[in-house]
Amino acid sequence: MNYEIIGNREKAVAIIESSGNTSKDKKVAQEMLKKSKHIKSVLAKISSRKGRLRKRQYKLILGSKDTEVIHKEHGFLLKLDPQKVYFSPRELTERQRLASKIKKHEKILVMFSGVIPIICAIKKKQPETIVYGIELNRIAHKYALENKEINKLEGVYLIQGDVKKKVPALKTKFDRIIMPLPKTSGKYLYLAFKKIKKNGIIHYYTWGAKEARKKIFAKIKEEAKLHKKKIKILNLTKVSPYAPKVYKIRIDLKIVN
């Protein structure tokens, strides 16, 4: 069975795929709680991610109703409640890959920054960077502020609100912009083009089949042309499977004018 564990060795939440059969799900949950004493709650997914806040509905199968945890990942901590905010523990490798691309003293914007897992990964590798994060979900923003304090992050500026309103108000441009919202990132590319420096890099996430890369590249180039930006696509990286033959992918593009 596919499942995720969010938390640490003292307290964690397990998230399973619902079988649609309550008694069957309970048996799975009982086995998990018996084998792993640090798992205090078992949740089952009962919906896909929906709405602007990317929230998913869960059903508590067994265990504590308190599903707030502190998740440990590569030397930093993330306080969160998976029932209230978006977080994917499966993308830790991608966060490390992305953080390894960052250079010293860069000024970075992370759109849709959530509880700031990407920002924490970046600051762990490159503490001298300046990073801005914008998040719509008020609860995620609250956790982000706590995570900034927990990890003693400096040079991090967190903004709650809609990127459509908050990005234009920023009085700075960035060396690097990260757009980790695959479903609707295309709607916000114009904001990235307005705030990226010459020779800056945009990390753009979307969903697509490997065979559709030409179509995806063409769309990005068309958007760049509309905003009078000349770009060079550096690479495409598969991040995680989404559906049969469809992946969450990251496209790195450089502004060359």
Structure description:
The protein has 257 residues and is α/β, with parallel strands linked by helices. The chain is 28% helix and 36% strand. The protein contains seven helices and 13 strands. The strands form three sheets. It has a seven-stranded mixed beta sheet, sandwiched between helices. A four-stranded mixed beta sheet has the order 1-2-3-4, covered by helices on one side. The chain has a two-stranded antiparallel ribbon with strand order 5-6. A hairpin with a 2-residue loop joins strand 12 and strand 13. Helix 2 (92-99) packs across helix 3. It is globular and about 60 Å long. The model has no long low-confidence stretch (mean pLDDT 93).
Summarize the structure.
With 257 residues, this protein is of the alpha/beta class. The protein has helices at residues 22-35, 92-99, 117-125, 138-150, 163-169, 189-195, 213-226; strands at residues 3-7, 12-17, 39-45, 58-63, 69-73, 76-80, 107-111, 130-135, 156-160, 174-179, 196-208, 231-243, 246-255.
Topology readout:
Blueprint: E1 3-7, E2 12-17, H1 22-35, E3 39-45, E4 58-63, E5 69-73, E6 76-80, H2 92-99, E7 107-111, H3 117-125, E8 130-135, H4 138-150, E9 156-160, H5 163-169, E10 174-179, H6 189-195, E11 196-208, H7 213-226, E12 231-243, E13 246-255
Parallel strand pairs: 2-3, 7-8, 7-10, 8-9, 10-11
Antiparallel strand pairs: 1-2, 3-4, 5-6, 11-13, 12-13
Q: Report the strand count.
A: 13
Profile the largest sheet.
Answer: 7 strands, mixed
Which overall shape is indicated by the principal axes computed on the Cα atoms? globular
Order of helices and strands: EEHEEEEHEHEHEHEHEHEE
Range of strand content: 35-45%
> Rounded to an integer, what's the Rg over CA atoms?
19 Å
